[in-house]
Amino acid sequence: MKKLLSLSAVLLFTLTTFAQFNNNIVVAHRGAWKTHNLPENSIASLKQAIAEGCHGSEFDVHLTLDNVLVVNHDHEFYGLDIEKTTYAELLTKKHPNGESIPTLEAYLKEGMKQRKTKLILEIKTSRISPERALAVADATVAMVKKLKAQKWVEYISFGWEVGIRIHELDPKAKVQYLTGDKTPAEAKAAGYTGLDYHFSVYNEHPDYIAEAHKLGLTINAWTVNDRADMENLIKQHVEYITTNEPELLFEVVGEKN
Fold first, then answer.
1. Which pLDDT score is estimated for 110?
2. pTM score > 0.90 for this model?
3. FRET pair for 76, CA 20 to 30 Å: which of 9, 63, 102, 225?
4. Which helix (H) or strand (E) holds 157?
């Protein structure tokens, strides 16, 4: 009996702990970097997004020449082509704040120190081949599972096949498509759990948001930095907005409440 009570207590603690992610629409694009002049996709910008209480902090993952997963937006890191460069060579360059390029493992471990801000992981397309992008997806999902980071991580990608692969590797994962060239019904059928389109796509297809919601898909919009665009999306009850201006979005959300 005592053992059953103990197990119940552990389960209750686990469920309560992971129910604490911030319940707001704000996703900081590449972390909260702009206002504080921090490097994009750095550990510092992740920490700032967490400090500001963002629901999510978005970041981008690449694979080096020697198969190390690293976090950076562009395909180049201060002039070095990540896909054609070893991790050791990348370490010869620094962000302006002194940080080295983060490995995915280090970035996830930092994000897992808290349970308030989701880690919105974009698997970047490859300039070498579509097959390499799938290899990045395979290695990324394996790393997330190794660290037991599934509760923190949600996936996004411009690669249609990449998102499908993620769903195959982890059917419980939340996966959103970025490109904007598929209908909500097509995304749902392929295993996606949400759309994450540029806000202009929703303007061009005003039925997408309502249609997606009927299908049980979530809606995110990128990259929304203008107050009027934020207000328009909030009126349409989107779940998330990705922005370079998280502070402004918090202000707008506060005015609407």
1. 98
2. yes
3. 225
4. strand 153-157
